[in-house]
Amino acid sequence: MRITVLGATGGVGGEVVKQALDRGWDVTAVVRDPAKLPLPATEVVVAGFADHDKLTAAVAGRDAVISAVGSRDRGPTTVCVDGARAAIEAGAKRLLVVSASGMHTEGDGFFTRSLVKPLLNTFLKHGWADMLAMEAVVEATDLDWTIVRPPMLLDGPRTGKVASRLDGNVRRFTIRRADVAAYLLDAVADPTLIRQKVSIAHG
């Protein structure tokens, strides 16, 4: 399998690179600063989202593009939607993006829906707005896309215990980044997840 990873220096993206290499996959990591890449990929492309020619070359011939891009602060941002648009314009055919379950309430209990998430929105509204815009951009395409929505991300080794749901949120509050990465890699070749929005959490 040949994949291109956007956001490869982040927590989830770094795990995607590591686990894909462990599977024997061919991995192209698109980064701004290669010094921040936690381990060597098969190929490293130094590019920003505006570097269309470099991104097109990085995506050409790949089986999938995984965008694990995310903001590192709580201010206004467009990094997620910019990353998705860059992947789409570069010619991705199979696109998987990491969003969040936090701004969605389908399947949540009353306490979470009415109290917890409105409180979280006061702190995370900019990042959530960026992810919502990303989801809208991805859904509007005719690509084979999958939107993956985890809750709060934690560090730690992969547990292998992931619950998923297509029609609403899983009623769990956390998941490890390593488990998100493994789910993304498994989803690449899963036809049941094409053009689906799936919420995942620790099982």
UniProtKB/TrEMBL annotation:
It comes from the Bacteria. InterPro entries: NAD(P)-bd_dom (IPR016040), NAD(P)-bd_dom_sf (IPR036291), Polyketide_Oxido-like (IPR051606). Pfam families: NAD_binding_10. Transmembrane segments: none annotated. Residues 7-191 form the NAD(P)-binding domain. This is NADH-flavin reductase. It comes from Amycolatopsis bullii.
